[in-house]
Structure formats: C-alpha cells, structure tokens
Design a protein that fits this description.
about 130 residues; alpha/beta; Nucleotidyltransferase, domain 5; 5 strands
C-alpha cells in the first residue's frame, strides 16, 4: 500500500492510498488539519483493516499549503520513514498518480527524508493592525 497525504487546504485533510494490486481509495475530512493528521491516518488504516507495516511508500504534497500544515505532513512522513524504513517522496501535485508504476517511482525517487517547500515567510505572532 502507498499512502499519500495532502494537508495543504486550510479547511480539509485529504488522505489517499493505493493498494498494491490496483485500487485507489481516498478519505477527505473537513477538520482543523494541523491537529489531527496522525489521528486520521490511523483511523483510515483501522477502517479498512490495513496494517501500517504494509505501507510501501509515502507521498506528501509539499507546496501551496500553510507553513504549519506542510511541516506537519513532512514530519509525519519522515518519522515513519526513519522508524519503519518506508521510502518517502515529495510531490507538487497528485494529478496523474493513477497512471504511474508506484513501485518504480518510489524505488527511483524515494529519499532519506522530504523537506517542506514554503510559499512565503512564516506568520508567527500577533498580527499587526
């Protein structure tokens, strides 16, 4: 199974996964995405009776999201990579994934870790009026 995380939309969290053998499934959650990513990944695995040890690769959408959201996604992917030796890739889009040989993509592009790409400077602190 390959897991793909899109945490870039302010009002929703999209998790897609591809079962080895062909089928694609997605879950979309309208939530505060920054605080619940790990919870929803775990919930998805349990809902479909999937074992986290069967994850063959993790793809993370790296751009067009908020500073914290992109950082949380990449941290989760990197932690799973380091703890389970799961290859990770950073993506600019999920378009066209259905047409790719994911085993080859992760073998050729799987990295030691992924780095977030930020759209601008972090907005930390109280907003100036």
């Amino acid at each position: 199974m390959y897991l793909f995380i899109d945490n870039t939309d302010k009002d929703k969290l999209l998790i897609r996964y591809h079962l080895v053998g062909g089928s694609w499934l997605s879950t979309e959650h309208k939530v505060n995405r920054d605080s619940v990513l790990l919870f929803y990944v775990d919930k998805l695995l349990k809902k479909y009776h999937l074992d986290k040890n069967n994850i063959k690769g993790i793809g993370v959408l790296l751009s067009n999201g908020g500073f914290t959201s992109v950082r949380i996604s990449t941290v989760l992917a990197n932690v799973l990579h380091l703890s389970k030796k799961i290859p990770v890739i950073g993506l600019n889009t999920f378009l066209g994934l259905e047409n790719l040989d994911l085993k080859k993509v992760f073998k050729m592009n799987g990295r030691k870790y992924v780095m977030p790409k930020y759209n601008g400077e972090p907005n930390i602190g109280i907003k100036k009026v």
